[in-house]
Amino acid sequence: MMSMIDSNNVGMMDQNLTLEINPNHEIILKLNELRKTDMKLANILARQLLDNCLIIAGAVTDPRSYVNRINQLMLKILTDSQNGTS
Predict the structure, then answer these.
(1) Does residue 86 surpass a pLDDT of 80?
(2) Among 14, 18, 59, 66, who pairs with 54 as Cys (CB 3.0-4.6 Å)?
(3) pLDDT tens, position by position, 10-25
(4) Contact of 1 with 59, CB cutoff 8 Å
């Protein structure tokens, strides 16, 4: 996880951060269903969800990884949309 943190913000990881997951949240429920059919996409989404949480906590992540995943997700949505699978 340390590789995900910008070198200027490594000290942020000294904090005891806790990720609380609501197992009944719609995103978690849909992510759980997705992992059964598309583990690769579920993994991308789970990593993005973690980055979103780190950003909210003020622990800045590597923006390149963040943007790369956003781009992957946008491409997947656009491709599925054009293929009529969404």
Answers:
(1) no
(2) 59
(3) 445 556 788 899 999 9
(4) no
Query: Would you state the structure tokens that stand for residue 4, as one six-digit string?
Result: 């995900």
**Phi, psi dihedrals of residue 61, rounded to the nearest 5°:** -95, 175
Instruction: Note whether 31 and 46 are within 8 A (CB).
Output: yes
Per the listing, tokens 């910008």 go with 6
Instruction: Find the domain containing 43 and state its range.
Output: 2-9+23-83
> Cα–Cα distance between 67 and 74 in angstroms, integer?
10
Evaluate whether residue 41 is within a structural domain. yes
Between helix 63-83 and helix 39-56 the angle, nearest 10°, is 140
Element (H, E) at 78: helix 63-83
Asked if 69 contacts 47 with a C-beta cutoff of 8 angstroms, the reply is yes
Residue 68 tokens, joined: 């790369």
